[in-house]
């Protein structure tokens, strides 16, 4: 995994991309896009997200995805964690209103629980921890595809009018912005796959730049709408505490629950990293469609959780990498079929 980390204690890895996200929020607070500039930024962010999902589709090997279907129990476990257990915990957060969270922050917290899992970071952390990397690739991809339909439907069911007025038009926008580019990328993969493989680092910048543009657009809308006075330091602290509990519960549940279900070490690692995280890349464009002008407040819990999950999972992955190597894994690596770390993988979504 290629990432630049600031010179901080090893137990607290701070990715430069996290600092870029914070800087983008500050820029939106000081210089929000207004009028024509807001229209241009909105159109650019829509195009950037479509490009992002086109690249996801073009980089995913169809043969690899079909081969991953053999691990159907693992994928069902990850999907259950992402779209069943997470939403149930999100609903339980309603008990924190109004003592810890405002209704608006709780709606964002619940939306966070409806977002699909990540792709890049699931792969990266699974690779570092010597887990089942192909399973992590497929689990993250299947979750992202399922989320294009399940996330807005669950938002309509659980958020109701809080979600900014979900409609068939909202679902169509999400499908056109996310699913269609992904399928086009899959169709064109035989012609562009080699080019994408040779330019992984450049395309990684496209990934990150797309997300930063969406963050700037969403937070600019929030500043113009004047909704940030609703977030006090006490409420922000309460949100961080609630998210820390949520992440701890899911990390423990995915690890020990997978063991109770009979999964081996490598599969448990893939389940833990794919089943405990949420995708900023998929969640931001969905929130902009579902919440409209209130998207910036709605995605604040997702942004904070995204940073928290990267830092905590980086520590866990490093510790897992130092675990004693199982005999079965040594035999596979001697045969040349063990999990291989991809140094070009970046953690963004």
Order of helices and strands: HHHHHHHHHHHHHH
Question: How many DSSP E strands?
Answer: 0
Q: How big a fraction of the residues is strand?
A: under 5%
Give the number of helices.
Answer: 14
List segments where confidence is low: pLDDT < 50 over at least 5 consecutive residues.
Answer: 1-9, 332-346
| Dominant shape | globular
**Measured distance between first and last alpha carbons:** 14 Å
Which structural class do the helices and strands define?
mainly alpha
Please give the radius of gyration in angstroms: 19 Å
Largest sheet: none
Classify the helix fraction into a percent range.
over 70%
Q: Could you tell me the mean pLDDT?
A: 80
């Amino acid at each position: 995994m290629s990432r630049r980390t600031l010179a901080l204690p090893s137990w607290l890895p701070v990715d430069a991309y996290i600092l870029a996200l914070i800087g983008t929020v500050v820029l939106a607070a000081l210089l929000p896009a207004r009028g024509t500039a807001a229209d241009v930024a909105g159109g650019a962010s829509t195009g950037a997200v479509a490009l992002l999902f086109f690249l996801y589709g073009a980089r995913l090997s169809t043969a690899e995805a079909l081969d991953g279907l053999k691990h159907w129990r693992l994928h069902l476990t990850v999907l259950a964690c992402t779209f069943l257990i997470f939403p149930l915990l999100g609903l339980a957060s309603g008990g924190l209103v109004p003592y810890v969270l405002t209704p608006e922050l709780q709606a964002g917290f619940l939306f966070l629980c409806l977002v699909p899992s990540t792709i890049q970071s699931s792969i990266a952390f699974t690779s570092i921890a010597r887990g089942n990397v192909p399973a992590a690739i497929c689990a993250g991809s299947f979750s992202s595809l399922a989320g294009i339909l399940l996330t807005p439907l669950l938002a309509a069911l659980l958020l109701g009018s809080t979600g900014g007025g979900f409609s068939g038009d909202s679902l169509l926008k999400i499908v056109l912005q996310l699913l269609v580019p992904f399928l086009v990328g899959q169709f064109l993969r035989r012609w562009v796959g080699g080019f994408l493989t040779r330019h992984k680092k450049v395309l990684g910048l496209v990934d990150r730049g797309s997300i930063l543009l969406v963050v700037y657009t969403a937070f600019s809308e929030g500043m113009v709408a004047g909704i940030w006075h609703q977030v006090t330091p006490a409420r922000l602290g309460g949100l961080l505490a609630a998210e820390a509990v949520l992440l701890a519960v899911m990390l423990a549940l995915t690890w020990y629950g997978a063991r109770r279900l009979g999964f081996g070490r490598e599969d448990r690692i893939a389940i833990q990293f794919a089943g405990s995280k949420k995708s900023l890349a998929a969640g931001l464009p969905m929130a902009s469609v579902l919440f409209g002008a209130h998207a910036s407040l709605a995605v604040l819990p997702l942004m904070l959780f995204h940073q928290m999950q990267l830092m905590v999972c980086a520590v866990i992955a490093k510790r897992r990498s130092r675990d004693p190597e199982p005999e079965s894994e040594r035999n596979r690596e001697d045969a040349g079929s063990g999990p291989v770390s991809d140094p070009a993988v970046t953690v963004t979504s």
